Amino acid sequence: MSKVFKQFLLALQIVSVCLSRAAAQDPTGVVEGHIADPSGALIPNAVVTITNASTGFAANQQTTDAGTFRFSYLPVGNYKLSVSANGFDALDYNDIRVDLNRVVNLPLSLSIAGKKESLQVNALDATVDVSSTLGNVVTSHDAVDLPLNGRNLTQLGLLQPGVAPLTFGLLQAGGIARQNQAYAVNGQPPESNNYLLDGVTNVDSVNGGFALRTPPDAVTEFRILTSNAPPEYGETSGATTSVVTRSGTNQFHGDLYDFLRNNTLDARNFFAASTEPLHQNQFGATLGGPIRRDKDFFFVYYEGQRDTQGETRTAIVPTAAERSGNFSGLTDGNGNPVPLINEFTGQPFSYGGVAGQIPPFLLSPIALKTEALIPLPNIGPSLFSSTQLLTNNYDQGGFRLDHNFGNRDQIFARYAACSQHELDPLPINGSGVPGFPSRTTSTQTRRPSPTFICSRPRSSKRRAWRFSATCFYKGRRRITAIRVIWGSLTSQRSHPRSDTRI
Questions:
Q1: What topology is assigned to 137-307+387-472 in CATH?
Q2: Lowest-confidence segment of 147-156, 253-262, 477-486 by average pLDDT
Q3: CB 177, CB 443: distance < 8 Å
Q4: Would you give the DSSP letter of residue 155?
Q5: Is 135 left (phi over 0), alpha (psi -120 to 50) or beta?
Q6: 0.70 cut: is pTM over it?
Q7: DSSP letter string over 8-75?
Q8: What CATH number was assigned to the domain covering residues 25-121?
Q9: Beta strand pairing call for 194-197 and 200-201
């Protein structure tokens, strides 16, 4: 590492003494274990090499005097482990799955050197996560193969213990403010959950919930840490949902999709005069592959939605007589006439010999003009029912670039953006009459990583900004991570353990 770069890191660490907030967690896993001979004696100085089967990234180290090894900060994926030692047959283990924030422990045994030059093991028994954190992993196969309403990946989190969906009433009452709040965990309110995308905070700072919802086809896996999360996940009191995006591999892969829903086979809403219209298209494409084999990889994705669906509401509106100030038809629950009282005189209204008639000179001309915008009853004497079209469209996309410097260092850069527009003519907090009021929301979210993050929600009722950034560098002999959130800077350094060489 150059002297200038060391001085730069030192300066950042000095600044971190005054600016203290860190907000990124590494989306990686750990493989550790020990190596023994047939008698159970531990083997020191054995050469252990771990290789990513998809990208060719490899790292190696020698076992300690206690015969142990530990590979930290491994990107999520399938790995192959090779072991060699003097006087023993070489050993190859394939299909080792490294999941998000999990520690895989492998007790290995080498055979005394004989006729066989190496031993191949093509499948491992189920590996055991020895970390204390509770939370299941959802893989990309689960995300793509299982049916999801609206292709919302977080619905798979409901398969875990302690995770409960938001009630329908809570979702309806919250409207746009709760549309990205996926679930409640262990009794905590949904606003208490934290969401990470590739280790970087992905929270809507205005409403809570996730800011950027990555499509399932662009996700490698995600995990909900429901209990006993490590200290670096202490930003909120609820659960932490960590999502890892897909990367390119040595093989080209991609897909093209379009999911269609319509009202052709739908039943009629009991309160609607006819079947409510529905036309929803979710379409997109992904493509990933190598730029230089075992060195550089790319992955790009796009997803769009065009959703138009009907919603039916019933509201109380003035009758034709009441529009002209005639309230003589007011009755109580038993059908008895009820007088309309003048608040200024304390006497019932009466004009032109008609009881309950408000004099025309008392009617506000502004109210009369507003009254013209309210429709007449179409169900009974004072009820109006209508079916209006709710529109919810979005476009999102992004790309990711990965580079392997060698057997010890990796770096990746990701950029994602999403633009959403929603028009609800009959919001839950409105009057049930079109236009009183309607809700229009436009949201734009941009999330470059690992150097800069910007989320800008825009709405007719709220406006907020959030800036943050995260840089990550993994060196040969130590790990230095720099986090910047709201202009604050924190540097973290950890020296290798005696049994770790990174």
A1: Ferric Hydroxamate Uptake Protein; Chain A, domain 1 (2.170.130)
A2: 477-486
A3: no
A4: G
A5: left
A6: yes
A7: HHHHHHHHHTT-----B---EEEEEEEEE-TTS-B-TT-EEEEEETTT--EEEEE--TTSEEEEEEEE
A8: 2.60.40.10
A9: antiparallel
Q: Decide if 156 contacts 137 (C-beta within 8 A).
A: no
Q: Tens digits of per-residue pLDDT, 404-421?
A: 887 667 888 888 888 888
The residue extents of the domains of the chain are: 25-121, 137-307+387-472, 318-373
Q: Summarize the confidence of residues 169-187 as an average pLDDT.
A: 66
Mean residue pLDDT across the chain: 76
The single-letter DSSP state of residue 358 is: P
How far, in whole angstroms, is CA 499 from its chain's centroid?
A: 36
Instruction: Tell me which residue has tokens 């476009």.
Output: 395
Contact 79, 89 (CB under 8 A): no
Q: Rounded CA gap, 139 and 133, in Å?
A: 18
Q: What is the pLDDT of residue 116?
A: 60
Higher pLDDT, 187 or 66: 66
**Sign for the pseudo-dihedral over CA of 363, 364, 365, 369:** negative
Helices (H), 101-226: 140-145, 168-174
* Residue 229 in tokens: 């999360």
Which of the two residues, 129 and 60, has the higher pLDDT score? 60
Find the angle CA(198)-CA(29)-CA(187) to the nearest 5 degrees: 70
Characterize 188-224 residue by residue with b for buried, 16 or more Cβ atoms within 10 angstroms of its Cβ, and e for exposed. eebbebbbbbbbbbbbbebbbbbbbbbbbbbbbbbbb
The per-residue pLDDT for range 249-277, each reduced to its tens digit, is 999 999 999 999 999 888 888 888 889 99
Identical fold between 25-121 and 137-307+387-472? no
Q: Which residue has the tokens 């990746």?
A: 412
| Separation between Cα atoms, residue 34 and residue 483, nearest integer Å | 34
Cis peptide before 290 (omega within 30 of 0): no
Two tokens at 61? 């180290």
pLDDT at 494 exceeding the cut of 60: no
